[in-house]
Amino acid sequence: MKHQEIIEKMTLKEKAAFLNGKGVWQTRDFKRLGIPSVFCSDGPHGLRKQAAAGDHLGLNESLPSTCFPTAATVANSWDTSLGEAVGEALGDEAMALGVNILLGPGLNIKRSPLCGRNFEYFSEDPYLAGKMAASYVKGIQSQGVYACPKHFAVNSQELRRMSMDAVVDERTLREIYLTGFEIAVGEGHAKTIMSAYNQVNGTYANENKHLLKEILRDEWGFDGIVITDWGASNDHALGVAAGSNLEMPNPGLGSARELIEAVESGKISEADVNERVDELLDAVLDLSKKAKDGKISFDADAHHVIAKRASAESSILLKNENKILPLKEGAKVAIIGDFAFEPRYQGAGSSLVKPTKLETVTGVIDQYKLSVVGMSRGYHRNGQEDDALRKEALDIARSADVVLYFFGLNEDSESEGMDRSHMRIPQNQITLLQELGQVNPNLVGVISAGSAIEMPWHHYFKAILHCYLNGQAGASAALDILTGKINPSGKLNETIPRRLEDTACFRYYPSQERTSEYREGIYVGYRYYEKAGIPVLYPFGFGLSYTTFTYSDLKINDAGISVTVRNDGDMDGAEVVQMYVALPGAKVFRPEKELKGFTKVFLKAGESREIEILFDDKTFRYFNVKTNKFEVEEGDYEIRIGASSADIRLSGTCHRQGTTDVLPYDPEKITSYMSGNISNVSDSEFEEILGRPVPDGRWSGELTENDAFCQMYYAKSGLARLVYKKLTKMKKKADDSGKPDINILFIYNMPFRAIAKMTGGAVDMHMVHGIMKMVNGHFFSGLGKVISGYFRNSRQNKAFEKELN
Question: Interior CA angle at 332 toward 327 and 337, to 5°?
Fold first, then answer.
């Protein structure tokens, strides 16, 4: 142990208390031992440090910080140098605001477009997600602050996220849901990892030895600390034994007492506790030392410039008929749409940032050489109809050369704590779009949305610029692209399907019961659409430019590939060269091809350059469930180089020797997976790749402390069912308002155990057990347990605190 001298001086009570948070954001300090406290803070695209008392849900106002584009936006840049620059700025602001651990980036895989938190995640592809996350981590940690990639692992839905069990086969787990974290740890050298709320194959992520010990620490060599998501701890003792260090936010001393009891009963060893204390001490002492020499302010203007660069590089030109863009100087334009007046530039929930400044299209349009004939909101973003607004917009559109229509998803469409039920834009926005098309055919759409949307209306537009959620400087970045000051270079980090029903997990998402079955396996995003032959609207990796690029001279050797890219147009611009790998005739089922490398190259008009993409340990591998490790299947691999997954320009082959003759599957038993037609996988096929029977996820019998509040629908207690109805009514009222209430959403999906984890020690698990008796119809015996537990917990807390002090 690195800090054995300090640990030998610590009592078991001090060790147990050290492994729990103090307050909402801080670790516990011990003056007697010279152990300081360090501060954690959201968020992935900007600091959310609160000025007043801290609270997990962001109810108290935060200090101003730069609101960068969200991860889902910056991933569209496919530019790791940009990711590192954003990370450096985030780390710089964290240091200036007294934050030691930045809780991000988020890199869960976009399994379904419906996940309410997709705006916070990089991609449907683990390689792209991992490379971008690693760049963020490098940048953040270069400033003396630790990055904390999250949520480890298989956290792909918000509905009942704290009580849901992700049932996923080992190959899919390793290839799809862990590869991004593997890259963030191996290449980014992340010093902290946040464990997820959910269970993974029946064991909570925070106490899952397979995840935290066997894979994260032993296989990947992670030497940092694991922090629970806020309230994600189920059994803290089992978490400590599995490799989890810090239970957050502030479970109180009841959790420390449970840890002591676990040691004394032999449930876990004190050696386990000592290991976790040593790791946490290493982080706390290192961060405290770095903070002593840290900055106390940051350059808000300089960071605004970085935010603008990130937005400009990450916006995607999806369509540009007749080269209507860039707009000609002096063009008569109509500015239509509520988002032009009040931008939707970030997601909702724990990542909500108070920006240092905020641009709007209507506020900066006068800086551009355009003739604005009028501006109108045109619609209400909450869906309410307004004939007067609609008429105003149509009248303005009639007199314009070009209509710039700003529209997208409202705040209530995407938020932490809730998943979307559909992929549609609010109908009143589409109705206005259709009417605008009747009075002016020159429509240019500018979309604000954090994830994929259905676009059956795309033919109304001559051009579409998808800005995702583009941060505080997004308005001028978008206008720079529309007017040609900047050549668009963004490429989609996810596929835009034609309709929700076409998505791989349509029948399996979200979970209806306790379990979420990942029956689609490795077929996520483009991996599914290509294998199953499902046409899409805009493919993965797609994005247009104002110039054209040609590819030539592909060369393949054992180390990687080289290719020459030329800018054949008359405008400087950047191209993302994408390398996909395929194995025709493979014995082990796999997608048609997979992204295994990329690079972004800037070329002046007429310039050409030879670029290289190297192979790495992930280029040819697959996870073999029989040998329990990554293997290479022997064969002639096709290396396909393209401008998107659907636009392959060059290809060649290279042979790779196999690493094993052991095949993991009997093809006759998994015909759905062999063909890729996994929309309705049978129990027997799923069990074949799962390697065990499909667990029964149905609710039955009494509710437990691991069931969510929303499950009180099934409660035997009439009072509990009344509470459920009241909560549901409050949630619906907030949803109908157009702005989701993150507090209500959190409570609605929160398991009963979290009452003991999120109340600062006021409630312990003994009291939660009493609450469960009440919920299950034993009101008076349960109430007695709660009351007696309250006084018992209070006495024990006071005695424990006295000893610590």
Answer: 85
Q: Exposed e or buried b for every residue in 121-134, given b needs 16+ CB within 10 A?
A: bbbbbbbbbbbbbb
Q: Give the per-residue pLDDT at 750.
A: 85
Q: Which of 1-15, 65-79, 320-334, 502-516 has the lowest mean pLDDT?
A: 502-516
Please answer whether residues 132 and 184 qualify as being in contact, where contact means their C-beta atoms are separated by less than 8 angstroms. Answer: no
Banded model confidence at residue 351, pLDDT cuts 50, 70, 90:
confident
What CA–CA distance (Å, rounded) separates 335 from 230?
A: 42
Q: Is 497:113 a contact under the CB 8 Å cutoff?
A: yes
Catalytic residue among 42, 125, 165, 229: 229
Taking the C-alpha atoms of residue 234 and residue 137, their distance in angstroms, rounded to an integer, is: 28
Residue 70 resides in a domain:
no
Question: Domain range holding 257?
Answer: 11-41+78-292
Place of tokens 């992204």: 595
pLDDT in tens, 637-657: 999 999 999 999 999 999 999
Nearest to 793 by CA among 761, 768, 771, 770: 761
Scan for tokens 């990055």, then name that residue: 147
Residue 123 lies inside a defined structural domain of this protein: yes
The answer on pLDDT for 58 being more than 60 is no
- Same domain for 313 and 276? no
Q: Would residue 229 show up in a list of annotated catalytic residues for this protein? A: yes
Above pLDDT 90, what percent of the chain?
84
Q: From CA 764, how far away is CA 666, in angstroms rounded? A: 50
Q: What share of the chain has pLDDT > 70, as a percent?
A: 98
Residue 401 and residue 324 share a domain: yes
